TrEMBL record:
Protein name, entry field: Phosphoenolpyruvate synthase
Annotated ranges, domain Pyruvate phosphate dikinase AMP/ATP-binding: 19-342
Entries under InterPro entries matching the protein: ATP_grasp_subdomain_1, PEP_synth, PEP_util_C, PPDK_AMP/ATP-bd, Pyrv/PenolPyrv_kinase-like_dom, Pyrv_kinase-like_dom_sf
Catalytic activity: pyruvate + ATP + H2O = phosphoenolpyruvate + AMP + phosphate + 2 H(+)
Domain PEP-utilising enzyme C-terminal span(s) in chain numbering: 350-660
Taxonomic source organism: Fimbriimonas ginsengisoli Gsoil 348
A Gene Ontology biological process term: gluconeogenesis
One Gene Ontology term of the molecular function aspect: ATP binding
Superkingdom, taxonomy of origin: Bacteria
Keyword vocabulary terms for this entry: ATP-binding, Kinase, Magnesium, Metal-binding, Nucleotide-binding, Pyruvate, Transferase
Class in the EC hierarchy, top level: transferase
Amino acid sequence: MNEPFVIELSQIGLEDLAKVGDKNAFLGELFQKLRPLGVNAVDGFASTADAYRRFISGSLEMRIREILAGIQVEDRVSLAAAGKQARDAILETPLPPELIGQLEEGYDRLMERLGCTSAVAVRSSATMEGLAASSSSGQNESFLNVGKSELILAVHKCYASLFTDRAIEYRARNGFDHFNVALSVGVQPMIRSDDSSSGIIFTLDPESGFRDAVVLSSTYGVGGTVDPGKVTSDEWTVFKPTLREGKDPIVARHLGTKMTKLVFDPDDDGVKAATVPEYQRGRFSLIDHEVLTLARWACLIEDHYSAQTGEPHPMEVEWAKDGQTGALYILQARPGKIPAQAEMDISYLPETRTKLMLNVADPAKAFSMAALPNDGVGLARLEFIIANSIGIHPMALCWYPELKDGEALEEIRRRIGGQEPTEYFVRRLSEGIAQIAAPFYPKPVFVRTTDFKTNEYARLIGGREFEPEEENPTLGFRGASRYYDRRYAEGFRLECLALRRVRSSMGLTNVRVMIPFCRTTEEASRVVEVMAQHGLRQGENGLEIYGMCEVPSNAIDADGFLEIFDGYSIGSNDLAELTLGIDRGSGTVSHLFDERDFAVKSLITMAITAAYRAGKPIGACGGAPSDSPDFAAWLVRHRIDFISFNPDAILRSVEVVARAEAPIKTIETAGAVSPAAWFSGPQPTYPGKASTVGAREKSITR
């Protein structure tokens, strides 16, 4: 019995690459293997490469060989003339009757399975001996919105497209015989994305190469190239590890311009540009549930093809949403390209016992920074996200639209569009936090709650209405004192809701919370209590709440603070400023500012000693360790648990820390002192000065 010229996609798999080309083999694999897993792949059928060979063999092949004999592809006029003659020869030669019959029968069976009559998409799928099919992708024609009466002509045109000028030139330049290539044609029902949206999914971040992200783009209309000056796609980034756990981790999104779209042209076989209504441009082209569904499908596709090849295999997936039914479909999947990145050789770096973390400000850079050697993020400031991604005072959003400032009211209305005001803040803040936390997962990421000063808060849109004017904002209404005060309590509630969403809904439980500028233990207790009221309960789901040690009282009464907080992180800038009584922004006295001053170091030693007594971790996240290697080494010698460095300082700091640890390891190896007992004996001393920190501590009673 002769092999059929037409095969259903349900009978095609990756093993049929030679029979139907890579594109149709992938489509068949999707429909046959992944549809049972819930991936909504599109039904269809394909003609075989043998059907093409049957058509082209004999006198037609001889005629085309004569046309192309001795052609010089550098001669553009000659190339164009030969290409047209070859295509005309193909179109003038009738398709075999048995192929025509099987194509029409395949169409009828497909319509019967669909239960309706539908236009179809007709796509070329080349197979070439000795050449990866992906190398010649995009050289052959596809046709959209094809009815049964145009099906045979569309297949005929696909065959002719093997001899476009571009395809002829490509094969000639690479030394391939034009007749070692064959063509399969895939036929599938049209998905009416012209009434909805379509796009591409990458199962890694295409810019940084970060493998634990799914990046999904979407625009209105049929997938294809429109004027890039008028269209940028909507884009979402989804975090794979917690997506697989059933969470909803959309960690970033970008609203595209979407001014024009491609729609089907009833007067042609293709598409045409149309203007997107203005009301649609300002909204996302997919809802979150659809984004997460597509991301989960993309992960299933990646897992399947990785299992087939025996190694991790990022994928590029085309999808579309049918505007008439609202259903999502996967149209195509192919192996994706891994971005070329400069490999960073860190094999020479020594291991350290002190945890080396990063200060990360900009969420957009977090994926790239995660490639640096690190033990997590020691400081992520909410202020950067609020100032750059939101720009609006949180209390202005809580009171919107009942604001006195008309200009601020109008700007807020423009920015939030139709979104609920406080949800606008919570969503943007939570996604900014998540974008930092995700690439470092499951390593700890310390997120510091807001520490804007009143003059900085006032510069946010709508801020002047809610901020007092202070003579010295550095010592004023900032940090923890705002969180339970009625003047900002609702704003802090939004911060807590964002943090809770990151940890609970997105599953990024590696996020720890750090409280800045907390002046008293009573204030610390009140803040922890307020956080619990907003769903951030200390210890629940592993939540740890740290305190910033940056006010002298934090060091002097460290025992009391560490009964409340789960750990400490030293903010050396503020601690030095307040200890020395210096405004580091003042040109007249700033030269006296130095975190390495004996008094500052004495307070830091007190804090480290108290942390060891309490059995709680303590680190440092100020700028001094990055700027002053000797200060970083001093912290290590005094047994700090972790230090957070600026990204540009991390590589050289590894060496600094390792050298500082060497004598400590030698002493411990000799059995002279254990880590736990390091602070139980005499306190460390500084060159030229005898330490009195221990004696002072003994004289202090709580």
